[in-house]
Amino acid sequence: MTVVWINGAFGAGKTTTARELIELIPNSTLFDPEVIGGALAQLLPAKHLAEIGDFQDLPIWRRLVIDTAAAMLAELGGTLVVPMALLRQDYRDEIFGGLAARRITVSHVLLAPAETILRERIAHREIPPDLPDGEIRIRQWAYDHIEPYRAALASWLAADAHLVDNGTLTPYETAVRIAEAVAAGEVPACDIVQTPEPTAETLAAGVLLFDEQDRVLLVDPTYKPGWEFPGGVVEPGEAPARAGMREVAEETGIRLTDVPRLLVADWEPPAPPGYGGLRLLFDGGRLDSAETSRVLLPGPELRAWRFVTEQEAVHLLPPVRYERLRWALRARERGAVLYLEAGIPVGDRHDGTSPDRP
Fold this sequence. Notes:
37% helix; elongated
C-alpha cells in the first residue's frame, strides 16, 4: 500500500494535478484531507474551532488523516493520491510516521513553481460567490501562507521530496511527470521511521544525560511531535536500565559504562488511542566535552539534538514529558527516587505539590 503525497504552497496546483494523476496511476484513488477539515467544522464546537488558526493544528485532524488514509487503502488497495500542503515539519513527520507505522509507504512530491507564479495564481483563483467576504479572506489567507512555505523550502521541505517545477506546465502535464517519476522509481519512499503503534501498555526507559554546565540532552525525533529524552520501549525480557543504555547508544552513539540510577517512575494513564504504561527516567550522568563532541544521530529517527536548561526545556517538550523532567531533576537534586502518576508524585513527602518552577 502506498501514498503519493502532493505537497506545495497554496496555488501550486496540488488538487487539480491530483485529479489528473489518478487517471495515470493504475488502481489509484484521490483522498483530499480538506474533507476531514470540513467535517470537523461541523462536529466540533465553534468555540473550540475559534481557538485555532488552522485545522491542521488540531491533533484530531492529523490523527483522522492517518486513520482515514489507512482505512481507504485497506478497503481499496492500490495507491492513494493525497493533495495537501504540509508546511510544518512536525506535522509532516507525525502524519508520514503514522502511515509508516501502518506499513504504508509515502512518496513525497513537491510542486514548486516560482513565487511570482504562485502569487499570480492566487490572484486569479476562482472563489465561490456565496461566501461572505470570501474572496478577500481566502486570497489573503493564501498570501499569508507564502512566507511559511518559503521558510520551509529553505530548511527541510525539499530534503526528501521529489521536486516538480510546474510553473509553465498544465495540471495534466504535471501529472504525467509525476506518474513517470513514480513508475521509474525516481520518487523514493520518505525516510520517516515509526515503530508500530502499541496494542497494550508499554514500559519505556529514558536516560537523562548532562553536559559540563548541567544542561540536559534532548533529541528531536522524526516520528512524533515534540522533543524527547534518549530512550525507548523496553524489549521483552530486557532490564529497563539496560534498555535505556542500549537506546542511548543507538540514538546518540554514546556508550554508557555504568548502569544509570533511577530517578522517576511515572505511570502514564491510557488516553485513546494510546494505551499508556510505565515511563522510567534514569540519570546517565555528566558527559565531558570530548564525549559530547562524539554525539552522532541516526538519520531516519532523529533530526537534531541539543543540551538545554530546565527553562529552555519547557518550550521544547510536550507538557507531560516536561513535568516528568522537572520531577526527575528534583529527584536528582535530592538523591531520591520519585513515583509519579500522570506526572504527579504519589506517596512522596511533597504530597503531589508542584516543584518550584524554573
